Amino acid sequence: MNWSEQQRVRLADEYARIGYVPGEQWPAPPPNLTPDELLTMFASIPDGAGRRGYMDALAKLGTPE
After folding, report:
1. Which terminus, N or C, of the chain has the lesser number of Cβ atoms within 10 Å?
2. Sequence-distant contacts of 44-53: CB under 8 A, at least 24 apart
3. What number of other Cβ atoms are within 10 A of residue 24's Cβ?
4. What is the value of pTM for the model shown?
5. Cβ neighbour number for residue 45 with a 10 Å cutoff
């Protein structure tokens, strides 16, 4: 996956916003997502939702809304 520097910064900001705790084990996102798709997924996670919010967003990836 090719990430621009701006996308990398935004991804780090999104992890911080949702409450990633350094060292905590979170599953990797699906490798078929583009950087923009992954950032869109992160944007759907509420502030401070933590690992549970991340896991819920991953589960919704294959579910139509």
Report:
1. C
2. 45/14, 45/18, 46/18, 47/17, 47/18, 47/19, 48/17, 48/18, 48/19, 49/18, 49/19, 50/18, 50/19, 50/20, 50/21, 51/19, 51/20, 51/24, 51/26, 53/18, 53/19
3. 9
4. 0.84
5. 21
Task: Write the burial class of residue 27 (CB in 10 Å: 0-12 exposed, 13-18 middle, 19+ buried).
Answer: exposed
- Per the CB < 8 A criterion, the answer to whether 31 and 1 are in contact is yes
* pLDDT tens, position by position, 7-64: 999 999 999 999 999 899 999 888 889 999 999 999 999 999 999 999 999 998 866 5
